[in-house]
Design brief:
- The structure is a single chain.
- With 575 residues, this protein is α+β, with helices and mostly antiparallel strands.
- It has three domains: 109 residues, Roll (Nuclear Transport Factor 2, Chain: A), CATH 3.10.450; 99 residues, Penicillin-binding protein 2a (Domain 2) (Alpha-Beta Complex); 295 residues, 3-Layer(aba) Sandwich (Beta-lactamase), CATH 3.40.710.10.
- The chain is built from 19 helices and 20 strands.
- The strands form seven sheets. The protein has a five-stranded antiparallel β-sheet. A three-stranded antiparallel β-sheet has the order 1-2-3.
- Helix 11 crosses helix 18.
- The protein is elongated.
């Protein structure tokens, strides 16, 4: 049975229709010409000038000025208008009816919408030169309607009291002028600091109407919600000594965040004295339930947690599958260089077993076979090389395909080494994407009432994500992540142990009496970062975690127990 197309096929217009359309367009042009034919050139030029201003086309405005001005620096002209717009906090402007020229001046009523002063209604008076080709006689006061010659646009602004920042249950995380919280150190670990605006944010804050001496959020939640909790500035906009507009500072409403106090406490306590970070995410909504330490700002090589991404790539490319099998060995050789398994362990066998025991000897060659382009594409599907959309959050990165290097570099990247860098929050997001059957959540620190499919694009094939999740269960059940096992709960996870410095002894050197081999280097846990990424319960995931402990040894020994402690608290909080 033939199915009807969901789209109606449109036949091309008839010749009569084409002629009718052409005649209508010609009529519009003729009417426009007739209407403008009787208008003085000053009026036409004034209209062009303000219409260009509405569009922010300063170059077109500059072209309508006198030759002397046109010969001046365009950059200075543009800067004058941008400075004026920033001072007034202009968001848009609209020109009214252009009047007739009187004594060489055309008046145009203007409405300027500002962030700090509301709507400002003033008249722009454009002077023109005489002659057959009149031009705008530009002077600096023309940067804002209502300015007289010699006047300069200034402002005097103040911010209201900073609004409170609340946890998802309404508990204050930062309250009042002192930014205090009944949660004490648990809140201070996430709230962040206030201070003088950094240079890179100065221009944006001026546009918003922040006073020059404003105190702003520099880190943590204070930075993330800075513009939300600052409120609406108030003050005066002046033309010289004259007041053009006044406004009253209005405080903002309190912001309800996604942070869960119980989960946040667990994340802070579990991390303890380690340098590192813990992130907890709800896979369905993308809500961040907890952040401790450097969870969203500290970049480190993710080690074998990155194998979640590599496994996804090779399954989608059908380079490997459940029936694939690999030799049991202690190392592999790529481009003439040996890549060893952790602690020289012998491993291999099925793909599932190789993943559960984190076999570099299997996954480095698989990454090389996948290739730099597809490896990078898979990583980017999980959010690498992309802004997380959270102010202050670092971007996790992998080099572009044309810069990643040879097969050895690709293989090293595939096991989370090389130049790959990630945050604990990014790896929590990777785990959450697998938990959500391939839908990547849009991370947020704002409490969400319900999940939205539009906020979770399908970035991994659903069946592939399900299979990767099962392999992650095996990591905890019968692999390197046993320390994250929770009685009565199916946990899916992946360990990671990222080398910060080489742990291999230098090669033996030839000598007359035989090869001279330096002594083996002693084990030093500070040579490696410990990682763990996981979600639970595996069947109906409610939470995902990412743990990074810098210089803390093996992921299965140190990061997995931290993840377990946090998972238990998070599962209890989301029941």
């Amino acid at each position: 049975m033939l199915m009807a197309s969901s789209r109606m096929r449109r036949s091309p217009p008839s010749p009569q229709t084409v002629v009718a359309i052409a005649l209508a367009l010609a009529a519009v042009v003729i009417v426009a010409l007739v209407m403008s034919a009787g208008q003085p050139p000053e009026q036409l030029r004034a209209r062009s000038f303000v219409y260009a201003w509405e569009r922010g086309d300063y170059r077109a405005m500059h072209a309508l000025t006198e030759r002397q001005q046109r010969n001046g620096p365009l950059a200075r002209f543009i800067a004058a208008y941008r400075t004026s717009a920033a001072t007034a906090t202009t968001s848009s402007l609209r020109a009214g009816k252009v009047g007739k020229a009187r004594d060489g001046v055309v008046s145009i009523p203007m409405t300027i919408r500002t962030r700090a002063f509301g709507e400002v209604r003033r008249t722009l008076r454009l002077p023109f030169s005489g002659g057959d080709d009149p031009r705008v006689k530009w002077t600096p006061n023309l940067v804002f309607p209502g300015l007289a010659r010699g006047e300069r646009l200034t402002r005097d602004l103040a911010l209201p009291r900073r609004a409170d920042i609340l946890a998802r249950d309404g508990t204050p995380l930062a309250q009042g002028q002192e930014r205090s919280s009944p949660l004490g150190a648990v809140a201070s670990a996430i709230v962040g600091e206030l201070g003088v605006p950094p240079p890179e944010r100065a221009e944006r804050l001026v546009e918003l109407g922040f006073p020059d001496d404003a105190t702003v959020g520099l880190t943590g939640l204070e930075r993330v919600f800075d513009e939300r909790v600052a409120g609406k500035p108030g003050g005066e906009l002046r033309a010289g000594s004259r007041v053009l507009a006044r406004s009253t500072a209005l405080p903002a409403n309190a912001v309800r965040t996604s942070i869960d106090p119980a989960v946040q406490r667990a994340a802070v306590e579990a991390k303890g004295a380690y340098v590192g970070g813990v992130a907890v995410v709800r896979p369905r909504t993308g809500e961040i339930l907890a952040l401790s330490g450097i969870a969203f700002s500290g970049l480190q090589p993710p080690g074998s947690t990155f194998k979640i991404i590599t496994l996804t790539g090779v399954l989608e490319a059908e380079i490997a599958g459940p029936k694939s099998s690999y030799p049991v060995q202690t190392k592999t050789t790529i481009e003439g260089v040996d890549l060893e398994n952790a602690n020289g362990e012998s491993c291999g066998g099925t793909l599932r077993h190789s993943f559960a025991h984190s076999c570099n000897s299997v996954f480095a060659p698989l990454g090389a076979k996948l290739g730099g382009r597809r490896l990078v594409e898979t990583a980017e599907a999980f959010g690498f090389n992309q802004d997380l959309g959270i102010p202050g959050a670092a971007t996790s990165t992998i080099p572009p395909p044309d810069q990643i290097g040879d097969d050895l570099a690709v293989g090293s990247s595939a096991i989370g080494q090389g130049l790959v860098q990630a945050t604990a929050l990014q790896m929590a997001s990777v785990a959450a994407t697998i938990a959500a059957r391939g839908r990547r959540p849009k991370l947020t620190l704002q409490r969400m009432e319900r999940a939205s499919a539009a906020r979770r694009p399908q970035v991994v094939d659903r069946d592939v994500a399900r299979l990767v999740g099962r392999y992650m269960e095996t990591v905890v059940d019968d692999g390197t992540g046993g320390a994250a096992a929770i009685s009565g709960v199916r946990v899916a996870g992946k360990t990671g142990t990222a080398e910060l410095r080489t742990t291999q002894a230098p090669d033996c050197l030839p000598a007359p009496d035989g090869p001279q081999c330096p002594p083996a280097l002693p084990d030093d846990p500070t040579d490696t970062d410990a990682w763990f990424a996981a979600f639970a319960p595996a069947g109906q995931p409610r939470v995902a975690v990412g743990v990074l402990l810098v210089g803390a040894g093996v992921g299965g020994d140190t990061a997995a127990p931290v993840a377990k402690q946090v998972l238990v608290a998070a599962l209890e909080a989301t029941r």
